[in-house]
Specification:
Length: 253
């Protein structure tokens, strides 16, 4: 889950899609790669109180199984704390630093028990985001339908192309997700049309609406589907999970 522009619903999507996939019958693991730790707290885990975090795993001080927590979602989360910023600095001094996460996955015995692993990236194209792109099968891009978001999307896609050619040839664009969508706004409708014209089927049919309950849920440490399963945001994320799974089934067929 990547977009270097902040405030586009990236972490909200990471948490709510993880929960929706699990409730749809797909085992999901959320890995919080953002030093702010918002995905960790939004999933109901206190990052400051956990013994072992993503930092310990990345630096070889703990295995994945020992840091994964079951959250109220219900889904599993590999939590982070503010010390992940220090890990970012340590990574910069390593050889093959952009491959560190991929190598950690190769050593992670429990990975086979998950059908989906979601990496919540920081709102920047830094070494942690680069590690995620090198390790991932695909990148899902949440974005608001506004002018500056289009500029940020171009920069991200350039980075994806570079990673694909230099380090991870299997990396694909999973899709572009329109978030905080308000159909009453003419700019929103125009940018949405531009996205569909340019990316076609890579734009998810599901749109995530502006929804107060989505904004409230993280303060309770819950995904929206558990906070208010009837709210428009929760319904939208369940629809996104269904669309994602259907796309993968179709591609596999």
């Amino acid at each position: 889950m990547a977009n270097q522009k902040g405030g586009v619903g990236k972490t909200t999507t990471s948490v709510n899609l993880s929960a929706s996939l699990w409730l749809s019958g797909c085992r999901a693991l959320l890995i919080d790669l953002d030093p702010q730790g918002n995905a960790t707290t939004g999933a109901g885990v206190d990052g400051e109180a956990v013994q072992g975090s993503v930092r310990d795993w990345l630096l070889g001080r703990a295995d994945l199984r020992s840091i994964v927590k079951r959250c109220p979602g219900p889904f599993d989360v590999a939590p982070c704390d503010r010390d992940l910023t220090a890990a970012e600095i340590e990574l910069l001094g390593m050889e093959r630093r952009e491959y560190r996460l991929r190598e950690c996955f190769g050593l992670a015995a429990p990975m086979a028990s998950y059908e989906y692993v979601i990496l919540d990236c920081p709102p920047s194209l830094n070494i942690l985001t680069l590690n995620a792109l090198v390790a991932a099968d695909s990148v899902l891009i949440p974005m608001q339908c506004e002018y500056y978001a289009l500029e940020g999307l171009t920069a991200l896609l350039d980075t994806v192309d570079q990673v694909r050619h230099r380090a991870n040839p299997r990396l694909a664009v999973e899709g572009v997700l329109r978030t905080m969508y308000d159909p009453r706004n003419s700019l929103t409708r125009e940018v949405s049309r531009q996205l569909i014209a340019h990316f076609g089927s890579k734009v998810f049919r599901t749109v995530i609406p502006r929804n107060v309950r989505l904004a409230e849920a993280p303060s309770h440490g819950l995904p929206a589907i558990l906070y208010d399963r009837h709210c428009r945001g929760a319904v939208a994320y369940m629809a996104l999970a269904a669309e994602l799974v259907k796309n993968h089934v179709s591609a596999g067929a």
